[in-house]
Amino acid sequence: MINRYNSRNIEAICIPLAALLFSLLLFGIFCAFAGADPFGVYASIYRSAFGSWRAFQNTLLRAAPLMLSSLCTALPARLGLIIIGNEGAIVVGGLGAVAAGLTLSTAPPTIVQVAMAIAAILCGGLWIGAVGALRHYRGVNETISSLLLNYIAIALLNHLVGGPMRDPSSLNKPSSYPIAQINMLGDIPGTRVHYGLIYGLVACVIAYFLIQRTTFGFAARVAGGNIRAARIAGLPVGKLTMMICFLAGSCAGLAGMVEVAAVHGRANESLNANYGYSGILVAFIARHNPLAATLVAILLGGILASGGSLQRSHDLPDATVLVFQGLVFLVVLFSESLYGRFFKEGSGVRGQRSAVTI
Amino acid sequence: MDQALGWWGVPLAIAAGTLRGSAPFLFVSLGECLTEKSGKINLGLEGTLLIGAMSAYAIAYLTGSPWLGVITAGVAGMMLGVIHGWLSQQPRVNDVAVGIAMIIFGSGIAFFLGKPFIQPSAPPLPALQFGAWSNLPQVQSALQISPLFLLGVAIAPLMQWFFRSTRWGLYIRAVGDSPDAAKAMGISIFKVRMLCIVAGSFLAGIGGAYLSLYYPGSWNERISGGQGLMAVALVIFARWRPMQCLYASLLFGGAQAIGPALQSVGIDSYYYLFNASPYILTLLIMILTCSPKRTLNGAPGALGQ
Questions:
Q1: Which residues are CB-neighbours of B127 under 8 A, at least 6 positions away?
Q2: Is the dihedral of CA A127, A133, A138, A139 positive or negative?
Q3: Searching chain A, which residue's CA lies closest to the CA of residue B294?
Q4: Residues B157-213 pLDDT 10s
Q5: A183 to chain B, minimum CA–CA distance in Å?
Q6: Helix or strand or coil: residue B128?
């Protein structure tokens, strides 16, 4: 006898896995049409993502910003908001971190790093917090406003690194002045992976407990389930919206800080490296569960890491990874319609679906 | 001649930019308007625009006929529309999320297949010359107008009439406003929405063809700066009326032309910020026109449900 609780859990694990496998199959067919050997492509992806310790470290390097970026979509989703301003929050977070790192360059490294993180958290948080405020006070659709803010953030980045913050020695690729080497985030001992990974893991765990185990998280989930009921129960919906949006943005902002302080060392257009859009995908595959997002981020980080080798050994363009991401996203969305279909006659699961939070 | 015009060059350049740059906005917003009237949102028109731009350019290059490219772009857009129309109508699948996925998928396919066409140059669409009466070259070039733009201008009032005075327009409005009533009338909601999404995607694909074959007139991965996304905001601003989509598109085309126009007279210190003016304008318009208290005037009743 499968009880209701178990069947829900089985679905929650099996359906996303089946969706991933099915999208791998579709991707294989796509590659075959493009003239590449599908099994060779699978092998290359596996090799360059998880095949060796060296490759896996590369994957983890990409997973770190993805974890942080995915929270920018996953947290507001619990409130019923679809926010896709991850890219913009990463960019303004990175800019804030560079500004703080350059202003305080002579302070002790720990203080500089803390200041960079705080600046990034504040910038990213206010950026997406504004989306929440517009949603609450003006009824502006949060998906569109956050998307527009992505473009505005990128324009701001181009303006600042091309003018006021420009390092005159950066000729081909306008950049800000570099952060002093001593103030950069180091690597986790024994690896090439920087501390950003720890930031990502910690942020996801905190987000999970905040949403699942605190009164604040409960209030947010209630408001996400039924906003009218939440208002009647006296929950401060506006405050909840803005706080969740602030937290979401601050996570993505921190991703920007990690990229600046551990990878690039300066702000330039590399900040705008699509971690935002991939983060949205991570959040949706993980069904907005922060703990699942860590695993999905590692998986997707691996796929992103394999882009180069697909280009080299199979002569596929770099957009192949983008096609794969799009396929996975579409199949995962389709799989949403399958929940509750498999255990129909078992124990009346169908009627219970509405009580399940996503 | 540049010197002779001086500062007058700025409004002229903005006017020229409006005539040149508003057509993609127009096609995409008309497509989005049609889609939203049936009660679904298609955020994926950005991907459709890119697919349209890529396929138009590729076909125009391979066959030498830009008009064949335009048709292909529309058909390619329709294919994406079928995916969106089917997927977004599955139970418990959110149409906004499908739109985001379609942006990633559509741009992925466009960049994947379009890679070999970045280098070669395709024959552009011809332009109609309306400026022969003037002897100023700036005026002459400002009044070069693409027939595709005129087509878009003609579609706007036609669509308005279609919604207001035809049986099919009524069906679409019924499905968008009150699906239950439509069902009672014996209309298939699935079919009407599917047709609207596919037709809207056709228009968006043609908008993409305009980008790659007329202005800016080349194919690269940055050709669409979010016009497909702004369309959604534009339709809200236009209150779901096709004629107002036309006016809104002209406004946005003009906003897009401010940056380059100022750069042409030597003001380039805020170039990137001026280039962001369509986005800032969209955001401001949404802040000013939206309200948390009521649903917007003219919004289809079942939109996004």
A1: B144, B145, B146, B147, B214
A2: positive
A3: A139
A4: 999 999 999 999 999 999 999 999 999 999 999 999 999 999 999 999 999 999 999
A5: 30
A6: strand
Contacts of A284 in chain B (CB under 8 A): 97, 101
Listed in sequence order, the DSSP H helices in A34-52 are 38-50
Report domain extents, chain B: 2-125+137-289
Q: Which of B93, B100, B283 sits opposite A336 (nearest CB)?
A: B93
Task: Domain B2-125+137-289: state its class.
Answer: mainly alpha
- Which of these, B168, B162, B259, B245, lies nearest to B207 by C-alpha position? B245
Could you give the count of Cα atoms lying within 13 Å of A250 in the half-sphere of its Cβ?
Answer: 18
Cα separations in angstroms, A220 against A75, A141, B298:
9, 19, 31
The one-letter amino acid code at A278 reads: S
Q: What is the DSSP letter of A187?
A: B
Judge whether B236 is closer than 8 Å to chain A, CB to CB: yes
User: How far is the C-alpha of A262 from the C-alpha of A257, rounded, in Å?
Assistant: 8
Q: What angle do CA A16, A18, A19 make, to 5 degrees?
A: 60
Give A120-163 pLDDT, tens digit per residue. 999 999 999 999 999 999 989 899 899 899 999 999 999 999 88
Residues A134, B287: C-beta atoms closer than 8 Å: yes
Q: Is residue B51 within 8 Å of residue B82, measured between CB atoms? A: no
Residue of A nearest to B286 (CA): A140
Beta-carbon contacts of A273 under 8 Å, excluding residues fewer than 6 positions away, are: A259
